[in-house]
Specification:
The structure holds 3 protein chains of 3 kinds. In chain A, about 70% of the residues lie in helices and about 0% in strands. Chain A is built from 12 helices and no strands. The longest helix of chain B is centred in the middle third of the chain and has 17 residues, at about 185-200. The radius of gyration of chain B is 25 Å and the shape is elongated. Chain C has 13 helices and no strands. Chain C has helices spanning about 15-20, 20-45, 50-70, 75-100, 100-110, 110-115, 120-150, 160-190, 190-200, 200-210, 220-225, 230-240, 255-285. The chains are: A mainly alpha, B alpha/beta, C mainly alpha. Chains in contact: A-C, B-C. Chains B and C meet through helix 2, strand 6, helix 3, helix 4 and helix 6 of B and helix 1, helix 2, helix 6 and helix 13 of C.
Chain lengths: ~325, ~350, ~290
């Protein structure tokens, strides 16, 4: 018996070409991996939520619900204001706000509900979490898809508003550059708020489904969606001016439908009291939007990581609450 | 001890009766035939099993008997009541417990959940509470009585489900894979509880569906083996096994055997004797034994063999009887095991 | 353990045990109402967070519409209409989510098959759900009414309290009858009916005039008053709660609307019974009573 016999068989070499475990697979990929995770989750979100292959569901979620919401407000305007030019301006105001709100609901509620759906209904949350993709990127991808789905309802409502409800639209007067910047900023803010809600829902047990609804309901009152901020008490207007969605709504109206009333300014508004100007100009709106969006995004990212860590620490990721 | 009621109703000869029952589900791309003509009779007081692999049609059949599903063609009766039109009567005398049940309202405690169901089954308000307390103790959930059901373990939940199934003193209890997902001790407890409940009143009938052969073998007086919506065989476990193997097979381990197994082959009642594998080959030569597989016409022939071995000076070190399992019966009937996929080579 | 525990009721046999007289059937159904209301009532005490969401959220929605009217400088009666509409929303949402859609949730959780294998009537189960949810709905409606009135300065002028109460009770009866009808659809349609519930929110608010007099919808409003309990009940309550006002409702008088509500209650409850039985038979035929096919 030789020394080699005494040592016994040698284990196969590790690393590349050794036929065994490849350590480099465990290294985080770069931008390509992140993009792949984002694109896959966005496609998944689109396939789950778009309903474009089911006419009934498409009709319910992208046509009937958003249109009905807009029509309620339009009729309220009509009853009170009759058919004058003031009514037309008010009508346009509520239709645009109602249409844009479809984005907000999809983003803020939708992302949080994705987490709850995966945790409670599909029981997939733990599998998504332990996959190599960054959980935050996966959620952002799902969120973007949801916002896209919400956008279908928004576009349909705006089109109905322009074609049938007297919303004045003049393509020649649209500030396209501002519109693009405002939409990007607004949608980023919406996704950030959705991530923030998802962070909260990761921790909650009871009434989890209601938190996003409560936040969306509160935002509805604060961002000048269907009425100008001037109607609110001044301290509340201060809160409104700190929200990116407020500037998004105002910016979209100003860029795409410049004939409509400003939601931020006007007689009795905090904005006018602070600046002396009747309404903000486009540059001010874009700047305010970018600053507030950046702040909200930073807060959302930090809070999400904290929530993720706390959830992992307390074993919340693979639990089902039955809510 | 109260006077025990008996099944004296003369109009119901059978607890369960199925005549040419079929069930076809509309599905894409083609309809699915879950039951392809079931004829079945279960006597009152019998513990009857439906044994078969997943997708055999056991649950579909139990759903028909429990009035959750209508047969596509054919008739089915429970204690003489037609499942199609006399659903109320059937629901008053039966109950159902399924394995893996996650039903219930998480915010309620065990006691409250069971009380709620007691009201559905027609018990009085106070009567319900006292009945619930009795059954909680009977199934061994006393420590969990005030615990929310959302925090119960799988075994505890199944005990609660069983207690629910016994609330209304059913005359027939349908058990659809009741030990699914339970560990060995929890499954044993559930089986024992069902047995105790059944033994308390003559005439109580149980229909059990399972794909655990040992469970069917242990509990059932008669078993129907089901596959692809058809009953392949019905009989007691012993009768079914005799379909596969009429002889008695033994494995003997002897200290020595002069002349080898061939000397046993000519003995009365011995069909075949051959060397068996697995004797302790690694033991010292002076301690090695001889293993023999012995096939006899019947168990009684073993006495003659033992006597002959004594005459040869051989001593029996170990003796074990080899019996076919119910899966062997299934393989014999169908040509594949429970876990084998039709059309693919068996594992 | 003594075997006595396994013997509770003495009957001579299964066929005797299966024969219940009318009193037994009635008592079973009444106890079922109590039993099914029980989890809802218990849930109120064990999960107090519902207070914030069930009460706070509706108030937010109502406030939004109030502020729209304020921005439009609408007459103060319209604020009152929104507040009353917001209060009735509580009952409508209870009907569609806690009754109609509830059977879908029960099926999803595996409870539905246990209900259908028990001897009670499904209408008793649904009525129990309604009773159980009634407390939360009443509280929600009361908060919207009281807080909304105080915060937004709504003044009610009620001349006839008894008719107002009668209209409220009849509206609930008709609403819950409609809810039971919808529940039967959910048993059959499953997930598709869940989406239908979504259709019964904003579109229903629009055609029922939740935030404005339904008569202003013209022909559509007239149709709503004829067919929708929420529309006719809300309109009658507004006419009675703001009697003597200057706003023209352009709808039938409260007396006529009471008759419509009576007819609706009878028709919907009768149809509910028919639909539940028909749908159960169809669901058993197509195998839709259970969510998981093992």
């Amino acid at each position: 018996m030789t020394a080699a016999d005494a040592r016994g068989p040698v284990a196969p070499a590790l690393g590349r070409g050794g036929g065994g475990f490849d350590r480099s697979r465990a290294d985080r990929g770069g931008l390509a991996t992140t993009w792949r995770a984002f694109a896959t989750s966005a496609r998944l979100g689109w396939q789950m939520e778009a309903n474009w292959t089911d006419p009934l569901l498409f009709f319910i979620y992208s046509v009937a619900k958003p249109l009905a919401s807009a029509l309620i407000l339009v009729l309220m305007v009509q009853i009170v204001s009759g058919g004058g030019t003031g009514a037309a301006s008010a009508r346009a105001f509520v239709v645009i706000g109602s249409a844009l709100w479809a984005f907000v609901l999809a983003g803020v509620q939708g992302i949080a509900w994705s987490v709850l759906d995966d945790r409670e209904r599909y029981r997939m949350l733990k599998y998504l979490y332990v996959s190599p993709s960054d959980f935050l990127i996966v959620l952002v991808g799902r969120g973007v898809a949801r916002v896209g789905v919400g956008g279908m309802g928004a576009v349909i409502t705006l089109m109905a508003g322009v074609l049938f409800l007297g919303v004045p639209f003049d393509a020649g007067r649209v500030d396209w550059a501002a519109a693009v910047v405002v939409m990007i900023g607004g949608l980023a803010a919406t996704v950030a708020l959705g991530i923030l809600m998802a962070a909260i829902c990761l921790q909650t047990r009871q009434e989890s489904w209601s938190y996003p609804e409560a936040v969306a309901g509160s935002l509805f009152l604060l961002v000048g969606a269907v009425f100008p901020l001037a109607v609110l008490p001044l301290p509340v207007q201060g809160v409104s001016l700190a929200l990116p969605l407020t500037w998004w709504m105002a910016g979209f109206r100003q860029a795409v439908f410049p004939a409509t009333i400003s939601s931020v300014g006007g007689s009795g508004s905090l904005f006018q009291a602070l600046t002396g100007a009747a309404a903000p100009d486009t540059a001010m709106i874009v700047l305010a939007l970018l600053v507030t969006t950046a702040l909200v995004t930073l807060v959302a990212a930090v809070l999400f990581r904290r929530s993720e860590g706390r959830a992992k620490d307390r074993g919340l990721i693979d639990r089902t609450t039955g809510s | 001890m109260p006077d025990l009621p008996h099944a004296t109703d003369a109009t119901a000869d059978h607890a369960i009766e199925a005549r040419a029952v079929t069930r076809v589900y509309k599905a894409r791309p083609a309809p699915v035939t879950a039951l392809a003509g079931i004829d079945l009779e279960v006597a009152p007081g019998e513990f009857f099993g439906l044994l078969g692999p997943n997708g055999a049609g056991k649950t579909t059949l139990i759903k028909i008997f429990t009035t959750l599903l209508l047969p596509t063609t054919g008739t089915a009766r429970v204690f003489g009541f037609d499942v199609a039109v006399q659903t109320k009567q059937i629901r008053r005398i039966m109950n159902m417990v399924a394995g893996g049940e996650q039903s219930g309202y998480g915010v309620l405690t065990v006691r409250e959940q069971l009380w709620m169901f007691s009201q559905f089954y027609g018990l009085g308000v106070r009567e319900g509470w006292s009945r619930v307390d009795e059954l909680i103790e009977a199934v061994g959930l006393d420590a969990q009585r005030l615990q929310r059901i959302s925090s119960l373990s799988t075994g505890e939940r199944q005990k609660m489900n069983l207690a629910r199934g016994l609330l209304n003193d059913p005359w027939i209890l349908f058990l659809d894979e009741p030990t699914l997902g339970l560990d060995v001790s929890a499954a044993r407890v559930v089986r024992r509880l069902v047995g105790d409940w059944r033994a308390a009143v003559p005439g109580r009938t149980v229909l059990l569906t399972t794909h655990y052969m040992a469970e069917a073998d242990e509990l059932c007086e008669r078993i129907a083996i089901v596959d692809h919506g058809r009953i392949l065989a019905i009989g007691s476990p012993a009768e079914l096994k005799r379909m596969v193997q009429r002889e008695s097979i033994f494995r003997l381990e002897l200290d020595h055997l002069d002349g080898g197994p061939a000397v046993l082959a000519g003995l009365p009642g011995v069909v075949h004797a051959s060397p068996a594998a697995g004797a302790d080959a690694g033991a010292p030569v002076d301690r090695q034994t001889v293993a023999v597989n012995l096939v006899l016409i019947e168990d009684g022939a073993l006495g003659g063999v033992v006597g002959a071995l004594g005459g040869l000076g051989s001593h029996i070190v170990a003796l074990a009887k080899s019996e076919p399992s119910l899966e062997d019966v299934f393989v014999e009937l169908v040509g594949r095991g429970f876990d084998d996929v039709p059309g693919e080579p068996p594992r | 353990m003594s075997r006595d525990v396994y013997v509770h009721r003495r009957t001579s046999g299964p066929r005797a045990a299966a024969g219940w007289d009318r009193r037994q059937v009635l008592m079973n159904n009444l106890r079922t109402v109590l039993g099914r209301a029980f989890p809802r009532l218990i849930g109120l005490t064990r999960e107090p967070s519902w207070l914030l969401f069930e009460v706070g959220l509706p108030f937010l929605t109502t406030s939004a519409f109030v502020l729209v009217y304020r921005a439009l400088q609408a007459p103060p009666e319209y604020i009152g209409f929104v507040v009353v509409g917001g209060a009735m929303t509580a009952f409508w949402l209870n009907v569609i989510w806690m009754m109609a859609a509830q059977l879908y949730w029960e099926k999803d959780q595996g409870n539905l098959e246990l209900y259908f294998t028990a001897p009670m009537d499904m209408m008793a189960v649904l009525f129990g759900m309604a009773v159980g949810g009634m407390l939360a709905s009443c509280l929600r409606a009361a908060v919207v009414l009281v807080v909304g009135s105080v915060v937004y300065g709504v003044h009610f002028s009620v001349d006839q309290w008894l008719p107002l109460l009668a209209v409220f009770v009849l509206t609930l009866a008709a609403l819950y009858g409609l809810g039971m009808m919808l529940a039967s659809l959910f048993v059959l349609w499953g997930r598709e009916a869940f989406h239908l519930t979504q259709l019964l929110q904003e579109p229903m608010y629009f055609v029922s005039g939740l935030n404005f007099p339904v008569g202003r919808l013209g022909f559509l409003g007239a149709l709503a008053v004829a067919l929708l309990p929420l529309a006719v009940g809300l309109d009658a309550m507004r006419q009675l709660a703001f009697a003597g006002g200057t706003i023209a409702f352009a709808t039938p008088s409260p007396a006529v609307e009471v008759l419509i509500l009576v007819a609706m209650s009878v028709v919907f409850l009768g149809l509910a019974r028919f639909c539940l039985r028909t749908m159960e038979r169809l669901a058993r035929h197509e195998g839709r009573l259970t969510a998981r096919w093992r």
